[in-house]
Amino acid sequence: MKLNLDLSAGTNVVTAHGAGFIAINGQRYTASLVVGPQLLDTAWGKDRFESLTIDDFAALADHEAVITLIGTGQRQRFPSPQMLRPLIDAQRGFEIMDTAAACRTYNILAAEGRKVIAAMIIESAA
């Protein structure tokens, strides 16, 4: 799906997503990542939901985001409360959704000027 959104220059926006990729500002990525209006971390996470660890969520809690979107791949899956503990302890709001929904929601919140990050699992297209 191709997405169009008018954001100020220098703001990261999801411009497309599909099986096995997400495009940020027109650049395609095929590995899981974290995106924020002024952040692009391509070293976050794993290629599968089941591979996530509490350390992955602790890394998300270190960001100054008010809301953290967690895209769990092609379908919505919920991490255990123990895995979410770093976000809870840091008093970060979070939402769990499939990655396509996280892409759309991120763009809306970023366009509103919210302090948002989206951690998105990009599963292999194979």
TrEMBL record:
PANTHER family named in the record: NADH DEHYDROGENASE [UBIQUINONE] 1 ALPHA SUBCOMPLEX ASSEMBLY FACTOR 3, NUCLEAR PROTEIN E3-3
SUPFAM superfamilies: MTH938-like (SSF64076)
One of the Pfam families matching this protein, by short name: DUF498
Source organism of the structure: Niveibacterium microcysteis
Domain of life (superkingdom): Bacteria
Protein name, entry field: Mth938-like domain-containing protein
CDD domains listed in its UniProt record: Xcc1710_like (cd05560)
InterPro entries (alphabetical): MTH938-like_sf (IPR036748), NDUFAF3/AAMDC (IPR007523)
